[in-house]
Design a protein that fits this description.
- The chain is an alpha/beta fold and about 200 residues long.
- The protein contains seven helices and eleven strands.
- Helices cover about 30% and strands about 20% of the residues.
- Strand 6, helix 4 (about 105-115) and strand 7 (about 120) form a beta-alpha-beta unit.
- The protein is globular and about 50 Å long.
């Protein structure tokens, strides 16, 4: 991907997916494809309890937000924007889950600051985020801060901010991935996608 916004909606998109790798830069990531299943992994809640991703999504299809961390103002703005449509997302039959490399303690800070009604989870070591194929090497200037925010587990990586819609088995139905971290999927477009899925399912 070369400096372009990537919106994937449907099947048959033919770029190569290589999971569990760290790309040199954001434009070089190889994310999982629509139709593929997100690998299971253990994540931590703000209270530091462990939860399997498969268990988190088992009861409802999920809007999965992957963000850089609570230190990122663009991420915080996006989390807040999505919070604004949380009730509508819920009425459409979906839940929202947000994951970052922040430690559980730092998730608490974000949750309290942004007053979020949906769940945050920590993937401080990056195993789950890497399995999505959206991780790249962080600029050197970030290394100390990322290490601190992750509780010493982030060895120098960042995720490309992404939105996945997955069913209860973890199969990817939609994804929005943009190497430009300043540009995010709008809440309005997210709702449009979810409503479209509902219309298709009701036919």
């Amino acid at each position: 991907m070369k400096h372009v916004m990537l919106i994937l909606f449907g099947m048959g998109l033919g770029f190569f997916s290589a999971t569990a790798q760290i790309a040199e830069k954001a434009e070089d990531i190889s994310p999982l494809l629509i139709g593929e299943t997100v690998p299971d992994a253990e994540l931590k809640a703000p209270d530091a309890t462990s939860h399997k991703f498969s268990a988190i999504i088992a009861e409802k299809p999920t809007v999965l937000l992957v963000y850089r961390g609570g230190w990122c103002p663009f991420c915080n703005a996006h989390l807040s924007e999505i919070q604004g449509v949380q009730s509508e997302v819920d009425k459409l039959g979906y839940q929202i889950v947000a994951i970052s490399p922040d430690s559980p303690e730092n998730l608490q800070v974000t949750d309290e600051k942004d007053k979020l009604d949906y769940s945050l989870y920590s993937d401080a070591g990056g195993k789950f985020i890497q399995s999505l194929g959206i991780v790249f090497k962080a600029p050197e200037k970030y290394s100390g801060m990322l290490n601190e925010k992750s509780g010493g587990l982030n060895t120098g990586f960042l995720p490309v901010p992404s939105v996945f819609i997955v069913d209860t088995s973890g199969k990817i139905m939609f994804e929005y991935i943009n190497p430009d971290y300043k540009t995010r999927l709008s809440a309005g477009l997210l709702l449009a996608v979810l409503k479209n899925f509902k219309e298709i399912n009701n036919k």
